[in-house]
Batch of 4 targets.
Target 1
Amino acid sequence: MAAWVPQLRKGLVELCVMAALRDGEAYGYELVQRLSQTDGMAVTESTVYPILARMAEANLVHVRKAESPNGPPRRYYRLTPLGQQRLREMLEQWHDIRTAVDGLTSGGSS
Amino acid sequence: MNHKPVTLTRQAHKTMDDYLQQVRTAMERSSVSGEQIRSVLADLEGQILDMLAAHDIHEAQESDVRSVLATLDPPEDYASGAATSPAQLPPSPTRESDSAPFPTSHSIRPRLSKLAVISALLTGPCVLITFSAFLLLLPATIHRTTHSPATQPNAVYGNGVTIVAVPQIMVAFTMICAPSVVTGLIAISRIRHSQGQLYGLGWAYFGVATTPLLLFIFAPTILLGRPVGFFYMIAALAVSLWLVKKMFLSAMGS
């Protein structure tokens, strides 16, 4: 795989993590599984967990601890109002970028 | 997924801890906050246990943990993941499932709970406070149990000392002895939830139990007066010493 492919993917992981939390809370491993099963994403835990930790510290996600059947309490993440606002802004940016790139790659001007 | 909790053998636990410690070391080199590191390690530990449970493993051996770790990212990946924003991240190294998942040079060992030690150490001042209180209140006890008139000098002294000493003893007890119990209880909770990473349960029990034991010995002694109180004190001391000996042995073993 060319080196720029993971680079491109990782640039979008934060957006994808927030988008995955848009419909409700999820715990870390659940998010990793959800994102890794998304075609073209192929992200792993070493990318997702530090992002979740940074987002929690920036108050973009709220962390709730709940009992796990398998061991220590699970940490469930959900978007805070600030996180939802950030996601809306990122999606707007993403939409603009995608439109521009689509325009360039299809040979037209954006 | 089966809902029986996963337990790890001692060696399996050590293997998992080694990996987590290397992730911690990698993240610490990236100068991320301690809270972020704790968050990542908690998620990662949960994932490892979930993956073991998904394989229907309930008592994981070292080989089970190694199999799971072999499918995870190498610890050094967390340095890059934590240090920069996603847009600045370098390409991820290829996953090396066939190689050893981590070197063994950095290994985490279970560590003694600091709170358990603090709780146990606070019992020293507690004992001093209790003995001081006992000696201060002794004249009042003697006065009360010998039925001397309240106008006698020793009675006046006893009442005066009681009025002055009791509030001070209560403040000292609250400032020193209550924290000993509270820190001990927190330490017990943390040790039990640490999955073997913390030890010192005996110290924590010692810190929690000493204050109630001191009260058990000296409060009735003061209230009963002599001679019944002193017989009670001897019996209570014997019982307490036996309990302390048990706790000490437990502390040495934990």
Note: The helical segments of chain B are 10-29, 34-54, 62-70, 77-83, 114-146, 153-193, 201-224, 228-253.
Target 2
Amino acid sequence: MPHYWIPNSTKEVKQEMLKETGVDDVEEFFKDIPEQLRLKKELRVGFGKPLLEHEARRKFLEILSKNKFTGFRDVHRVFLGGGVCVHYIPSVVRAIVSRAEFYTAYTPYQPEINQGILQAFFEYQSLMAELYGVDIVNASMYNVSTAAAEAVRMALRVKRGRKRILIASSAHPEIKEVIRTWVEGLNVRLEEIPYEREDGELDVNVLRAKLSDDVAAVYVESPNFFGIIERKLRDIIEITHDAGALAIVNANPLSLGVFKAPGELGADIVVGDAQPLGVGLNYGGPSAGILGIQDRKELLRQLPGRLVGMTKTVDGSEKGFMLILQTREQHIRRERATSNITTNSGLEAIAAAVYVSLLGAKGLKRLSEALLGRTTYFLETLRKRDIKAAPLFEKGLYFHEVTISFKGRDARDVISQLEKHGIHVGPPLSRFYDVMHDCSLLCLTELHSKDDIDELVSKLALVLGGETG
Amino acid sequence: MKYRQARWDEPLIFELASNQDRETFQLGDDYFAKLGKETLTEVAQDIVRKEGPNIPNLSEPEVVRHYTRLTQMSYGIDVGVVPLGSCTMKYNPKICEDLANDERIIYAHPYMSEEYLQGLLEMLYTLQEWLAELTGMDVCSLHPPAGAAGELTGVLMIREYLRDKGYTHKDEILVPESAHGTNPASAAMAGFKVIHIPTDERGNTDLNALKAAVSDRTAGIMLTNPSTLGLFEEKITEISDLIHSKGGLLYYDGANLNGILGIARPGDMGFDIVHLNLHKTFAAPHGGGGPGAGAICVKKELADYLPKPLVRREGGRYYLDYNIRKSIGRITWFYGNIVPAIKSFMYLMMLGPEIREVAEVAVLNTNYFMKKIKELPGIDLIYGRERWRKHEVVISFENLYRETGVNAEDVAKALLDRGIHAPTIYFPLTVPEAHMVEFTESESKRTIDEVISAYKDIVRQAYEDPGKLKGAPRNTSVGRLDVLRANHPRTLAPTYRYVKKRNIDG
């Protein structure tokens, strides 16, 4: 049947093309498919018949309206954390990534006709390098979880022969799972380093004790899954280097307006998620994984993913951009490639570049400060009132996300009570840890005003009791 | 067709910086920023960033103009034809873009209670069902964020499944020489040894070589069907029986599904695991390199090994099921790439049971092109010369190169000059001086005719004035780029910071 997305689907065009091809029927082209494999039945796909655009729009809205979550109107009451939080998507970012020259392009294999997108990727790499304090950043991974997994695999190649990886037990549980899956088949041991009970930071003594010459890398997050900034990050990196291992640090890009960049502190490989940089939550994906390295040959040689570089025209007259060091990649190196990654998160990387360009160093610093200010405000407000809830790590430095303990009260119950008041908090930590049944994460972002935070605390008081109103 | 691409001499964003102060876009408010600053005075100063990152402070219109100019020097499917083989660059319907970026989706938090997101979950569940029907498989998961991630998922599932059966000696994966590079790369990532199988003259997997390579150690085979040569694997049933008889599994690389969509299904051919590229066959855009989305579909016996979680329905309620008994774990955090998945859901909703039209026209387009292009001097088909193609065709310029010195890359650059994006070049590696051409169903006869006459014109020029083609392209934003300089250790320039530090002459 003809369709308006398919120009050559009308009978007249088809017949003309078939004639010029010297064939009577389209079926002729499929004759090499064994008869018993050729589908005879109509497939049960769609809603019985093709829908026209207005019908499809109606159907979409009909289904989506079953969502109780109504979008931006509700986000000021969404305090969910767990690695990603509600953040504003500036209209400028949407406008640029909605330009079809960008979003309908393929990977720029023909650089001369795609200089614009290549320059945008180069700028993404360069802006992230400035933010994370490293010299080289690739053109993106799928998200931070796969960036971390690839970083670990990369470390194992750089430190060939070393078969242990130490992972902060305070790392995002789902990232830990991803790393575990991605090293399956490599015959490697993953070991966890516990955190301090009082401040939620990595136990440096255990790290020191566990490090030896068979450890390829140490993976740490700051802020970690609990929202805690690792104040001894420099020491952690130094101790790691003393044992000849690589330090992989995952940092939230929005923390880097106020806290020292992991690259400056000596991390060999840095990773992060571009989600807060105007990419959107997207129900968990897509996002872009930031992956950067120090300027060292052995690291660059093992870097996975695409890399854009600046060059000149053959006659030397003009600057230009193109994909570089492609011999690391699967389409050339095949089973000896540094990774199988092909499609990455190009458009999200551009979104992040536009976002960072839009805020500038100034806007990023102010946003980081304002996020930290909200964390402080929330903790102070909570402390001032007599509520049966407190941050789990009393001496920890929280940024953006907070681990809150409901003092023996089941977190799942508290969360569903809050939901009844239209407030979303979570995830409950019992989801990941058997012991922390009374703990939950929550996250405070630029989308939460002072009133919104006050409202959160009031509703916590209401649900948890301990004071009136 | 005359083509003149925009040629802005657009500086790097860093070079737009000025000494004069600019107010930048703000998301940080004064009240909380002040509070944050105060907090910072109380923490150990050695963790505080004293000097901000070297990122320019620009006003909103300056940023918008910069990136808009960059879009003008970019080329996507909405600008013109992008016949990259195996990339399936089809039209991305605007309605899909429009709806998938709904606030209720892009602001949806992955840890929000399922009760609040029933509509979204229903769409994902329904898409899983439709994809299972289209592939002839039992269960589909939307977990993998791209095709290659789907492959890794698949080979890890093979590994686990065989290990549970006690087949730990099965450590080899067979891959045809014409396969996408991701296949051997994925198999190797999961710890398998890769055995390459040659292609026979008809363009099929060489059955004798395959029989010789199959052994007790065979864990499985990774095939794309139609192959990267655009040819249907005629002996697929024999291959399936052979591999299964040795206890191995069949993995289907779905990158080329567009050529048989609604006509034949991998599930019926004997495949046990299938990955799909939603950004190819199912019209989600490529975004200049990503994001994609890669569904993974399996037969019942393998469903217990799928990554966690899966969207399920029970009593009219949709939920994320983490209870997958022997799951290989997680390939990514959360649930995959949701926004492209919604676009594919819309695409399938609008084509419905008539999806077969996609493959019919895509294949007609390929064969129409092939018939005309093989008449040209200097061009050859190498494999399966007398056979009809499916989604794509690979043409070789080996003769042209030998006779004129003009190679596949020169021809590609000359196409750019005519406003046509070049096909995939030098792939598959088994075809010398290759152009791998895929039009999909989205290109009109008129466009295909334009591409044919462009090739005709270029080939004529190659015989008349080959030197001129070495100077292509001229009509693009820049002329031909210096690959050696780009990759040379002394002139390598991966970031602005690197360039400044090493003082590389930009």
Note: Chain A touches chain B through 217 residues (CB under 8 Å).
Target 3
Amino acid sequence: MISFFNKLNRVEVQIIGAEIPEILNSLCDDNVSLIGTKPIDEYEVSLFVYKKDFHVLQKTVNKYGGEVVSVNKPFLKSVFQSMKRHSAFLGVFLLLVILFYILPLRIYFIKVQGNQNIDSVQILSACRSEGLYPGVKRRDIRSEQIKNSLIAEFPQIIWAGVNTHGSCAVVSIKENLSDSIQKQPIPCDIVAASDGKIQRIEVIEGEAKYRAGDDVEEGEILISGQMDVGLCTLNKAAAGEIYAETFRSISSVIPKTIKSREVRKQIKHRITLHYQNNKIKLCFSSGISDATCGRISREYFLTFPGGFQLPISFVVDSYTYYVNSTDDCSVLCAEKDLMDFSNRYISESMVAGEIKNVNMQTSMDDNMYRLDGVYYCLEMIGRTKAYEIGDVYGENS
Amino acid sequence: MQDKRHRNESDMFRNKSGSMKTACEIIGKNRLLVENHYGILGYSMCCIHIRTEYGSIQILGNNLCFDFMSRTRLLIKGDITDMKLIGRGL
């Protein structure tokens, strides 16, 4: 193997000159090792030299009025030529290359994840009936078909998916863990979540109690699930959309001084080789003593061409040293941050809708900035409210 | 003990002036090692002239080439048929 790598470190050259023996003698005097010197004709010779000696060779040949021609071979060609003599090594290498390209074409491992109540064996059995088993071709896997089959066979499964990583197929399952599966909608009303003036009301199920333009208060029933059909009253699940104009007020504060972290030293890395439960430390920069350092771990699995993944991984832990500093926050900066926060908070707290107008006022206390804002919004204020225990509901109340 | 023996062997290859003596060694069927040579006088695929302390050595054969060449060592490879010591050297 050493000689193989030595050969990679050589370069083939041709020397053309009138005084070839003198050139060779001079090169030997300069401690240049000449390998495989073959005379081509009286004025030309072919030989190998180490790359480090190439400049000396060029200088010596030029001194004697000769010329050096470098015979550059492609890297892979030179590698294969060097390996020709090591037929066993070459054979194993070619076999591995072929295997690495052929192995990932088929599935050899099937992994089930996400199942809690359903046994993996049952899922694998269902997958087998749909054509997912060890040895199947990757292109023959129909993930949509398997997903539909799993959902149809196991009612607890609400979502399923099949992904392939190299020669490993991963069946991901999502189960419905709630005990009672809601088959029928529970009778309920839609009530107002906040005070406002109704702009638009659309009833899908139930009976509307207000019209557009009416003012409503929080908790009032907007769409009732109770429907009077003459002889009896039907209790149904009310459904609909109610948009109303609302006013929301928000107060947010930010301290005048902000604590921040800045990188004090350069990042240090620790590299560990993980194989099953074994961990081998490969490289670790010493000197980590401070508690003020952040750690980020990244795991890189060894993957061959074609996606064949080995259960060996390199874990790179990056340690970043920080120093805590205290900075003063300017008025403009504080105002901008508070406005951004308030807008985002209001937008996220609405089920649906938009901010129409805003009135803000910034004030400064002893050690903080304060922002008071009143938002005029158009938002959906309807919320479902199920009948509580004791309420009479049913088809014949 | 071993160092002493090595020194004696080393002394054997030195001449009166202290420089190393030229030595030729045939290795196997088609290799010839020349140690402490004084350079090449001429060469071709069938004939190589090497300058030594005692004169020039003429090596005859077919497909001759220098497998390895350094200041002190010269390894000739090929079908060696004859080797002659010609004339007086340095």
Note: The longest strand of chain B covers residues 56-69.
Target 4
Amino acid sequence: MSEKLQARRQLYPLLGILSTVITMVFGLITAKSDVCLAYLAAIWLLLLLFGYWRACLAVLPAAAGMCAFLAGITYAVSRDVPSTLAAVNRILSVCIAVIPGLGMQPVNLVRNFSALKMPRMLTLGMMITLNFFPLLGLEVARVREAMKTRGAGSLLQPRVFYRAFLLPLVVRLVNISDTLSLSVETRGFSAEKGAAYSVYKTVRMHPADLVYFGAVLLLSIWVVIV
Amino acid sequence: MKQPIFEKLKIKDIVFLAIMAAVTLCTCAVMPLVASLQTMVFGIAQVVTSLQISVFFSIGLMKVRKVGSLLILSVLMGLFELMMAPAMFFSNIIIGLFLELFAIIVFRGYHSDRAVFFTVLLFNPLSLPFNVLYNYLFGREAMVAVLTATPWLTVVMTLAVIAITALGAFLGIKISKELQKSGVMKK
């Protein structure tokens, strides 16, 4: 998830995830309905209004490409216009449903889970997984640099890949894991049930979040009734 | 002495599993490159991600040989996939739960290498029927048609997923054993 796509004022993470699931499920269920396209357009506009314009615009080229390709295949296979339109609706429902996720700062989701007293194991795991992505890129670059220095050969050779790249990378991962777990334990993290902890920055629900979620629910009910 | 089936997960176990999940997620980022081919070639997404998932999952299970490890790996992967493809999240959780039960019933946990190998071996191939079921339920005609359009290709791709997963699981176990022998990886 690129930082460039993140909205300035983000929705309450849990409501964002719920709206993702609702949009996708209702979009897929009502894909054959005539009003599904209007429903998806309304959700897209709603997200645009709520500040997710970067993510809203970013999904457009991807959605257009996928629609052209996949709906083209559906038409070639079935020669049926309603089936092709249903395929377009399904692709769009997936593309529009991911917008809240694209525009969300992942750490807010972790904070949200922590504030809701979700299992510590889960929030800690999420936090580490999130923060590990950039570190992994650095580690890979270091291992490759070491390979070059040693003149280990090409990564395309399976033996070289295994001995000179994969094994050192896993060794680094194990070492990082050992250091990180020591560091985490030193900072008082505990897997014990009932261990007290606080959240540095709490994510609060605002009236605007409820308005957004209410609108998504109303639209979803409308698309089923119509 | 008989080893207990259920052992408490420690912080260091969760940290290692989270790192393995992160590495698996990163290396599986090649999947979107073939996403458009899913309507033409059955199981193409599983073929390109099987090796990474099986290598890193087996390393994770070789170090943290406790019941729940595979589920934690699947949940951590699934939570990030939830924002991109909810179907993958449900697939991961259901398969993770099923395989945990399988490991408990058949192998009494992950104490043996055989348990690690077979559990990881089943992880990717099981996502194939799940995907078919999902596409049937949501009526993705083009995706379902792929399954029956070229049956030989479906069989070849399924066998390829199994073979690649077996290779990955074997490699993961081999790497872990080498690291355990050298003292880098402690159980």
Note: The mean pLDDT of chain B is 85.
